[in-house]
């Protein structure tokens, strides 16, 4: 789910930006946590957020793009046509859950791909490839962008140093407690609606490798730009069981989340 809309952000080509020090982000969308400590809530508790107008606008935009793929609500009525500032994160997660209904793993991932493509102007992937060839600079630059622009989606995060192909670089993003996983409580949604489609989108559409490694013990996540992800069958996330105690569609009797099976 982490894909950048090139309609609202302007970039300079890589050759004009020799280092991240020359780039100064402004007017970022900040994720405001309402917890007294200013940090994500402990595992087992949901973090409270103070979402502003722009955060809710992004939630509404994604939800409306996904709504046409979603199953009807359980009582048979259509979802409320909320105004932008009436949207909330729970509604966004609910739409994601309804998108999963009646679709297998690959179909779920394809829906996310179509939604992400619909968020971009025509020709955006090709332009991205020209501006951001798979270099260390491109990987570090996209890591720097991820932290401020997508905190509304995944929660607080920070750029960290990682090692890619034996080279240390600041192209890693540590998500302290993923908001999407925390609110959905669903392993299948994390993997099928976020991790795999986001990795594939950056690799296949943008030409920039990305690996996402969720930690299902504390709900944190590591993103590494520039690192090629393993095949699905070899990815530890593909063998993860359900959150039996918190997932509304879990199967406690299965060793692997049913949504991760083909």
UniProtKB/TrEMBL annotation:
Query: Which GO MF terms are attached to this record?
Result: iron ion binding
Outline the extent of the Beta-carotene isomerase D27-like C-terminal domain. Answer: 152-234
Q: What is this protein called?
A: Beta-carotene isomerase D27-like C-terminal domain-containing protein
